[in-house]
Specification:
The structure is a single chain. With 171 residues, the chain is mainly β. The chain is 2% helix and 54% strand. The chain is built from one helix and twelve strands.
Length: 171
């Protein structure tokens, strides 16, 4: 009879079952370029005590420069005396990989060296004044908030929330 022991790993207590979680809480998903995003970041402990080195939140701008449109028109053509119906129009849009990117527009450290007990919740408040950061939001660009808790020797807790930033209409 051979008894197998479970694998020994220094990361075992930090599997997804045990790790910390982050949640970004904001009142809405769309802001105009003259508003301030006020929100909170909720850090929830896992099943073991953890030390968080740094807790931060970022505003990330995802952009694309150009769209290219291709169009294909094929008329019906007789083949061996038979007229075959053929696709008459196909349109597609694509972007070149070099024409896309993302920039960290705003990055703030909310806390450093946090002790987090099992199942403990801690709340951190943040404020991002959009008008001081973004001058002309483009309509097709994407924006997102991303929070990260840097946990040594474990998978970092990460939360992401997409938001829309629009140009305020002048009356």
């Amino acid at each position: 009879l051979l008894l197998l022991r479970p694998p020994r790993s220094s990361l075992f207590p930090y599997t997804s079952l045990f790790r910390s979680k982050l949640e970004i809480v904001i009142p809405k998903d769309q802001y105009s370029d003259n508003e301030t995003i006020q929100g909170e970041l909720i850090l929830s402990g896992g099943k073991v005590s953890q030390e968080i080195q740094v807790l931060n939140i970022r505003l990330i701008h995802e952009w694309s420069r150009e769209y290219y449109t291709t169009e294909l028109n094929i008329a019906q053509t007789p083949v061996a005396g038979i007229i075959l119906p053929v696709v008459t129009s196909v349109q597609s849009q694509y972007e070149l990989e070099e024409d896309r990117g993302k920039d960290v527009v705003f990055d703030i450290e909310l806390a450093r060296e946090i002790e987090l007990d099992p199942d403990e919740k801690k709340t951190f408040f943040f404020e991002i004044n959009i008008s001081e950061i973004i001058k002309n939001p483009a309509p097709n660009n994407k924006w997102r908030l991303q929070a990260r808790a840097d946990i040594p020797y474990a998978k970092d807790a990460v939360a992401t929330r997409e938001i829309k930033i629009i140009k305020k209409k002048k009356h």
